[in-house]
Amino acid sequence: MIAFVLVSATVGFLNTLNNIAALTLFHGADFLTVFDKPQRDALAYLFIRLHNQGILINEIFWGLWLFPFGLLVFRSGFLPRFIGCWLMINCFGYVALSVTALFFPDYYEAAFKWAQPVLFGELAIMLWLLIKGAKVPPLELATVQMRTA
Question: Domain span at residue 49?
Fold first, then answer.
């Protein structure tokens, strides 16, 4: 799970370079005077499009880390098991949407509409933790239960 999050963060930081390149082209630094304004604008738009593609690639890792996280939630007993299942299904939703966007971009809008309920798993766990919290057993009770098991 940590490896997926680290890769996702790395891809996200590197993807930010595309936005920096687009801003540099739009601002028109001195060394860019060899390019005409329409050429600079076209290159900047290319970097913006590359940034969008980078987000679609990063969605794969956003989804992949949810499977081990959902499994941990499912097995923990501190949180409802249905949220753990929802997070694991959310994993496949993100991966399917990312693959659809990269290889079948014409169908992305329709796939996103169908997958929208699945993608609320992250929101569900966030709201559950904010409103209800985790039901952690008291320390004495937990140690007694561990000794009898």
Answer: 2-148
In this predicted structure, which of 31-35, 40-44, 101-105, 139-143 has the lowest mean pLDDT? Answer: 139-143
Find out whether 90 and 119 touch, Cβ atoms under 8 Å.
yes
Residue 78 DSSP code: S
Q: Residue 80 corresponds to which tokens in the numbers above?
A: 């409802």
Number of domains in the chain: 1
Determine the pLDDT at residue 114.
92
Give whole-number Cα distances, 65 to 56, 83, 123, 136, 147, in Å. Answer: 15, 15, 15, 24, 33
Name the helix (H) or strand (E) containing 42.
helix 37-64
SS3 58: helix
What is the model's pTM? 0.71
Q: Within 13 A of 33's CA, how many CA atoms are on the CB side?
A: 2
